[in-house]
Amino acid sequence: MSLIADRNLPLRTTFSLRRKRARERAPTALSEIFSTITIGLPALAAFALLWEVAPRAGWINALFFPPLSQVLAVLWEMIVSGQLADHIGISLQRAAIGFALAVVTAVPLGFLMGRYPLFERASDFLVQTLRNTSQFALLPVFILVLGIGEASKIAITFYAAVFFLLINTIVGVKSVDPLLLKAARSMGTSDWDLFKKVIFPSAIPSIVAGARLGVKTSLFSVIAAEMLAAQSGIGYLIQNSSLMLETDRMYAGILTLTIVGLVLNYLLVAGEKRATHWHGSGESGPN
What we know:
Layout: H1 3-6, H2 11-56, H3 68-81, H4 83-115, H5 117-131, H6 135-146, H7 150-174, H8 178-186, H9 191-228, H10 234-243, H11 247-278
Helix pairs in contact: 2-11, 3-11, 4-5, 4-7, 4-9, 4-10, 6-7, 7-9, 9-10, 9-11, 10-11
């Protein structure tokens, strides 16, 4: 049954059908992700082989680019000692707090701006001004105002994520099918039920897409903040190892960041695909 056909059904039946489709297509979304990873393994293996051979053959200076096996050995030592888990946990905690605050702020504000044009016109210029100011340019300001403690790092992750969520929420609210809104209104639906049963479910795919971008940007931002002013976290590990010329530890930290980023990315891809299928679309953007 197509989306157009859905419009002729009662509101509750329409959303029930969409939820059923999401459950049916979720395994397909996961299989697509695993297929993408599997196809890319040979290229990854070739890169790993080159990483191992190039320093050992003297093509590049092993002091600045140690063999992959040496990096993996140091990485394993850090895993066994628990040091790596501590750094990962601290960075993820900072990024998660900043992202959660961004969600709490951006999603309600996005619904207001998307639903009420007058409020959007009054606040849009301020939002666009702040959105076009780089979080990295403001990092020294956050440190000066909030200090080098946790507050400045959480603030930078919040700032990095909030506008992705805000803009995508606004877009999601504005893209709600007008026929669904009219159908709900004709049935005497209250404003709260309209939001809960029509606007919010229809905006979920766009919000999830914004969350995917926001999570990644939050993580990258907290890493940058940790490199500048921190005594813990993955960013601190990378920067401190670089300054001490412990390049094997530095690359171990970079590899850890890559793995964490990949895991988060594919978790969010799976969530985005599920949300997009729920919405009734088969497309959800690149992985």
